[in-house]
Design a protein that fits this description.
With 147 residues, the protein is α+β, with helices and mostly antiparallel strands. Helices cover 19% and strands 20% of the residues.
Length: 147
C-alpha cells in the first residue's frame, strides 16, 4: 500500500496564522514576522553590561576590617584595561591611575568579578589616611620607631 499525503484544507494552520512577533537570537538581534523558536523560550536572556558615559564611582561601604568601593569604567577605558591585563591579573595603582581612575591614596584593586570585568573592585584598611595611603596602625608604628 502506498501512503498518500493528504492536502491541507483551507482551515488548517499556516505560518501566516501566527501573530506577528519579533524573534530574538542570543545576540539580541531579531527578525519580524517569524514565529518564535521553541528553543528561544529556554535560552537564557543575557543582559548587556552597563557602560557609563564617564567613569562612575560608588559610595564607600565597609566591614570590620576594610572599606570598599567599586568603579565602573567606560567602554573605551575598559578596552584599554583589557589590553593591559587581558583580565588575568589585578591592576597596580600606577595602571589604574593611568586609565583615568581618580581616588585618594591607599586603595588597592583586590578582585576581578568575571561576569563584569569592567567594574573594578577596590578596598583599603579602615583608618587609612587618604593623603598618604598608609593605615593608622602603620603610621603609629613609624612614629614609635622614630622616637
Amino acid at each position: 500500500k502506498l501512503f498518500r499525503l493528504k492536502p491541507l484544507d483551507s482551515a488548517g494552520p499556516s505560518c501566516r496564522d501566527y501573530p506577528r512577533v519579533i524573534r530574538r537570537s542570543a545576540s539580541g538581534a531579531g527578525s519580524e514576522g517569524t514565529p518564535p523558536s521553541p528553543v528561544d523560550r529556554f535560552r537564557p536572556r543575557v543582559a548587556m553590561p552597563h557602560y557609563p558615559e564617564e567613569i562612575e564611582y560608588s559610595e564607600k561601604y565597609a566591614d570590620d576590617k576594610y572599606e570598599y568601593r567599586h568603579v565602573i569604567l567606560t567602554k573605551a577605558i575598559a578596552k584599554d584595561m583589557y589590553r593591559i591585563t587581558a583580565c588575568k591579573r589585578l591592576l597596580e595603582e600606577k595602571e589604574w591611575r593611568s586609565l583615568g581612575v581618580q581616588q585618594s591614596y591607599g586603595w588597592v584593586h583586590y578582585e576581578i568579578h568575571r561576569p563584569e570585568p569592567h567594574i573594578l573592585l577596590f578596598r583599603r584598611l579602615l583608618g587609612t589616611d587618604p593623603g598618604t595611603g598608609k593605615a593608622l596602625a602603620q603610621q603609629q608604628q613609624q612614629q614609635q620607631q622614630q622616637q
